[in-house]
């Protein structure tokens, strides 16, 4: 068992890694940037389980939306070198422990992802989960605090397509609704691609509804979530 | 492998997952399925994926020079142009999953001429121009596709068609076929006592090259062939009344029904004989000739034509005509085009018609009047397929109405007989009674002239329909001059009658090509799997009607659709580029139709022009749709020309 609390100066990083960490851009609050100009990274994490404090990130998949399109030349997928037991979740993802053993050391993997993500807005399906898992991993492995804005595709979708009548739907419900066919689901990169395709549809709809800027969209999303909460509590 | 390399490798293959998925998707469609893997990977790695909601404009003329190559990943794209005459826009084409656009604009480094709109929610893969240019330079498959577009795919289709035909031939007819299967016809035989003259008469009647001499129990005693006849006559060694047994070759070579065609071919070559008796348990059950074996390799067209011309009974014609189906199979196998095949079918049909007429005249007696046998419709255009019915009439010269009536009275029984005999030969009787045996279609030249004029002057729907049949006319038998005079008068009259032309144009727009009917997978998913389309009415008819109208309006006497199109190009009525595109499209639809008919014949299914596009492979389906689009363009041109 590793006793990390005996290492007061935080995780061990090489000099090179420390420099790269220092050079990561600082994401600012969302400004009045047109949706088309906003670089977004659509993220999907695979973890050993759903426990936010205990489970580990084992693989990262991400796809970039830039200038309103998914750019095939900017994709990220990486498996993290972890020693884990074979669990149900591992079976779902189909990543064998041997494969994990061949992955990148977690610190390097996370650093590469943060370099890839830069100061982009990060989209994910059930984003709070990915946000908290990633934040915990970054803190532990790099001593870095995650500051990128996260937007939840699972919220954006019912907000922009109320007619779908999907209230607490999973990724599969929405893929079905939009008739998006993705082979090889449950790989981080394939799920990120699936989520990104939904995001393209959502961004198109947002612009048709007159939501032209990322800050407007984010604000609308916050209102929507609040009013949904209110509606739930009023019963 | 060092640790660092292993990491690099892991990262790469992982990123490849999405690239891979997209490559697998593209591999379902030409030309991507023909491209080398590294080239396809290069394409995908440099792509971006965009979404367009229904109605969104994807690329339009206003956007200027085209900067991207688009592949439809999901959904459907419409090309829209401002409507030629009416207000609003018209859909000019449709692009569906796996297809690309706008190739011509991209290769021509210009803007598109058509706005491309999402017809439904659509995802497109976009390849930027620099990557497109690079791909054109590295991949010869992609380059070929970019330069020649759909035409480059046509070669592929033709190769496929040939392979299919070869396969079917290989199954049905090979040198492994047994003699029992080949010698299906009852052998021509006679008793040894039959006089030579009568035996030869029998051979002539049965149209065979040999006769087997048998005893009362059908044991073969000898064989007499055309070669023997030549010897008998050449050496004057006997007379026609001597019994055949004195001239026959005794103890003819024979083989059991289980022997193969190959065995027989070897035996014939070794023994210098042209006929092998097929004998089972000592009894004659068939004869195989060199010609039977020869026809395994290819049915000789010249020979077939000669046999038809020399058939002495309608029944023999029926037998000979069975060979035509096999001929078509053979020709497809040898890479013949649908045009060549329709021409040959027309040629053989013409021979059959002539022979049927000659036989009827022989039998009923010469009516003593010169007459011309006319044919109309597809027969008139030389565009018949195996699936054909009668459209014919008779033209004769008469001084006045009284004489015409008199002549008609004499010709009609003959005409009726000819119609019946043609039916026996497989030319189905015309449901609309467009047949020479109909008194209204057995007319003098003046009567025909008046009839045609009335079609032009009184443009009722019936008359318009009639004009689409009768104005494609041709003389098959008898003097040609009357028919040509009739045609010239027709052309003169139509050239002056703009109103009639306009009515014909309206008529030509009746059958709209079913583009959009088959949206590949969408139709099937909606449970509309039984959707079929009519290759003839919806595919060929627009071309036929369009070409007829333009030809008649511009004094072109030719009836064949492709020939009409060529002459229209020569006269600069249509652009050479359009003419070539129409020809290619017409050709492809006709080819598809013929293959469809051949398949039905093999399956023993009734002939039909209706095809379920889902039964075609992706490539055929796509080219077929492209071809229907050309029909749509031709119609749009007519609408513009005649302000419809």
- What is the fold-level CATH name, i.e. the topology of chain A? Nucleotidyltransferase, domain 5
CATH topology of the largest domain in chain B, by name, is Beta Polymerase, domain 2
CATH top level assignment of chain A: Alpha Beta
**Number of helical stretches of at least 4 residues of chain B:** 25
Total count of strands of chain A: 5
Low-confidence stretches of chain A: 1-5
Tell me the major beta sheet of chain B: 4 strands, antiparallel
Distance between the termini of chain A: 48 Å
Q: Major beta sheet of chain A, specifics?
A: 5 strands, mixed
Shape of chain B: flat
Tell me the CATH architecture of the largest domain in chain B: 2-Layer Sandwich
Helical coverage of chain A, percent range? 40-55%
Determine the fraction of residues in helical runs of chain B and give it as a percent range. Answer: 40-55%
**Helix/strand structural class of chain A:** alpha/beta
Helix count, DSSP H or I runs of 4 or more residues of chain A: 9
What topology, given as strand order, has the largest sheet of chain A?
3-2-1-4-5
Percent strand of chain A: 15-25%
Question: Residue-averaged pLDDT of chain B, rounded?
Answer: 82
Lateral arrangement of strands in the main beta sheet of chain B: 1-8-3-6
Radius of gyration of chain B: 31 Å
- Indicate the multimeric state: heterodimer
Topology, pairings included?
The complex is a heterodimer of chains A (235) and B (644).
Chain A: H1 15-22, E1 40-47, E2 57-66, E3 69-79, H2 88-93, H3 97-101, H4 106-117, E4 121-124, H5 127-142, E5 150-152, H6 153-160, H7 171-177, H8 188-208, H9 214-233
Parallel strand pairs in A: 1-4, 4-5
Antiparallel strand pairs in A: 1-2, 2-3
Helix pairs in contact in A: 4-5, 6-8
Chain B: H1 3-26, H2 37-45, E1 47-52, E2 57-59, E3 68-74, E4 76-82, E5 89-96, E6 100-101, H3 103-107, E7 115-118, E8 122-128, H4 129-138, H5 140-148, H6 150-172, H7 179-182, E9 189-190, H8 196-206, E10 210-214, E11 220-225, H9 226-235, E12 249-250, E13 254-255, H10 261-271, E14 275-280, E15 283-289, H11 290-297, H12 301-310, H13 314-333, H14 338-364, E16 371-375, H15 377-380, E17 392-396, H16 401-424, E18 442-444, H17 445-457, H18 461-470, E19 474-477, H19 481-495, H20 498-508, H21 521-525, E20 533-534, H22 535-553, H23 561-570, H24 576-603, E21 610-611, H25 618-641
Parallel strand pairs in B: 9-10, 13-14, 17-18
Antiparallel strand pairs in B: 1-8, 2-7, 3-6, 3-8, 4-5, 4-7, 10-11, 11-12, 14-15, 16-17, 16-19, 20-21
């Amino acid at each position: 068992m590793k006793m990390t609390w005996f290492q007061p100066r935080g995780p061990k990083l090489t000099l090179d890694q420390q420099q790269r960490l220092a050079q990561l851009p600082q994401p600012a609050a969302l400004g009045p940037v047109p949706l088309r100009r906003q670089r977004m990274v659509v993220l999907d994490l695979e973890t050993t389980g759903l426990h936010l404090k205990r489970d580990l990130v084992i693989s990262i998949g991400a796809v970039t939306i830039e200038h309103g399109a998914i750019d095939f030349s900017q994709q990220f997928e990486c498996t993290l070198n972890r020693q884990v037991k074979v669990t149900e979740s591992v079976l779902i993802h189909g990543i064998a422990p041997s494969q994990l053993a061949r992955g990148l050391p977690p610190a390097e993997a996370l650093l590469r992802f943060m370099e890839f993500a830069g100061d982009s807005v990060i989209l994910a399906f059930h984003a709070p989960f990915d946000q908290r898992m990633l934040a915990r991993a970054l803190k532990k492995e790099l001593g870095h605090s995650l500051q990128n804005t996260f937007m939840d595709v699972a919220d954006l979708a019912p907000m922009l397509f109320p007619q779908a009548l999907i209230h607490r739907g999973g990724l599969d419900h929405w893929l079905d609704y939009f008739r998006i066919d993705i082979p090889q689901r449950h790989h981080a990169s394939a799920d990120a691609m699936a989520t990104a395709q939904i995001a393209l549809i959502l961004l198109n709809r947002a612009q048709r509804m007159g939501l032209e800027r990322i800050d407007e969209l984010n604000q609308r999303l916050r209102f929507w979530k609040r009013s949904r909460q209110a509606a739930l509590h009023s019963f | 492998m060092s640790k660092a390399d292993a990491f690099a490798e892991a990262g790469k293959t992982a990123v490849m997952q999405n690239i891979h998925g997209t490559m697998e998707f593209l591999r379902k469609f030409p030309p991507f399925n023909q491209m080398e893997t590294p080239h396809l990977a290069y394409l995908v790695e440099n792509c971006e994926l965009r979404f367009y909601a229904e109605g969104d404009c994807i690329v339009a003329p206003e956007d200027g020079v085209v900067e991207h190559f688009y592949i439809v990943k999901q959904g459907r794209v419409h090309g829209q142009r401002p409507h030629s005459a009416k207000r609003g826009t018209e859909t000019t084409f449709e692009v569906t999953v796996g297809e690309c656009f706008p190739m011509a604009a991209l290769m021509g480094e210009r803007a598109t001429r058509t706005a491309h709109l999402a017809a439904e929610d659509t995802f497109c893969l976009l390849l930027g121009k620099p990557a497109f240019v690079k791909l054109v330079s590295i991949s010869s498959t992609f380059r070929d596709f970019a330069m020649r577009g759909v035409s480059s795919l046509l070669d592929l289709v033709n190769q496929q068609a040939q392979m299919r035909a070869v396969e079917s031939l290989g199954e049905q007819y090979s040198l492994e076929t047994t003699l029992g299967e080949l010698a299906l016809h009852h052998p021509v035989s006679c008793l040894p006592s039959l006089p030579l003259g009568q035996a030869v008469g029998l051979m002539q009647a049965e149209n065979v090259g040999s006769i087997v001499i048998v005893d009362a129990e059908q044991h073969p005693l000898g064989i007499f062939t055309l070669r023997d006849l030549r010897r008998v006559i050449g050496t004057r060694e006997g007379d026609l009344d001597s019994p055949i047994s004195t001239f026959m070759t005794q103890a003819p070579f024979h083989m059991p029904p289980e022997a193969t065609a190959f065995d027989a071919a070897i035996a014939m070559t070794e023994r210098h004989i042209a006929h092998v008796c097929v004998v089972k348990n000592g009894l004659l059950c068939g004869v195989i000739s060199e010609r039977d074996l020869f026809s395994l390799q290819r049915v000789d067209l010249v020979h077939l034509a000669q046999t038809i011309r020399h058939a002495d009974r309608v029944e023999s014609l029926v037998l000979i005509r069975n060979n035509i189906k096999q001929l078509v199979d053979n020709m497809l196998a040898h890479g013949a085009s649908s045009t060549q095949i329709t021409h040959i079918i027309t040629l053989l049909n013409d021979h059959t018609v002539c022979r049927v007429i000659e036989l009827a005249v022989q039998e009923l007696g010469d009516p003593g009047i010169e007459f011309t046998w006319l044919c109309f419709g597809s027969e008139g255009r030389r565009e018949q397929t195996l699936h054909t019915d009668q459209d014919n009439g008779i033209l004769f010269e008469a001084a006045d109405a009284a004489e015409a009536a008199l002549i008609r009275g004499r010709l009609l029984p003959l005409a009726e007989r000819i119609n019946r005999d043609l039916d026996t030969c497989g030319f189905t009787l015309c449901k609309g009674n467009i047949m020479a045996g109909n008194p209204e279609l057995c007319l003098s030249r003046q009567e025909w002239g008046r009839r045609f004029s009335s079609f032009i002057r009184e443009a009722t729907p019936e008359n318009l329909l009639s004009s689409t049949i009768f104005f494609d006319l041709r003389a098959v038998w008898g003097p040609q001059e009357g028919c040509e005079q009739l045609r010239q008068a027709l052309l003169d009259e139509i050239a002056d009658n703009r109103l009639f032309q306009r009515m014909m144009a309206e008529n030509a727009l009746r059958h709209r090509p079913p583009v959009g009917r088959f949206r590949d997978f969408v139709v099937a998913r909606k449970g509309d799997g039984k959707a079929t389309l009519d290759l003839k009415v919806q595919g060929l008819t627009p071309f036929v009607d369009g070409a007829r109208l333009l030809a008649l309006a511009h004094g072109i006497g030719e009836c064949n659709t492709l020939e009409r199109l060529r002459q229209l190009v020569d006269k600069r009525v249509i652009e050479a580029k359009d003419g070539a595109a129409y020809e290619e499209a017409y050709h492809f639809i006709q080819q598809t139709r013929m293959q469809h008919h051949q398949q039905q014949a093999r399956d023993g299914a009734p002939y039909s022009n209706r095809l379920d596009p889902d039964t075609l492979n992706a490539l055929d389906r796509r080219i077929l749709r492209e071809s229907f689009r050309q029909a749509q363009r031709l119609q749009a041109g007519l609408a513009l020309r005649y302000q419809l």
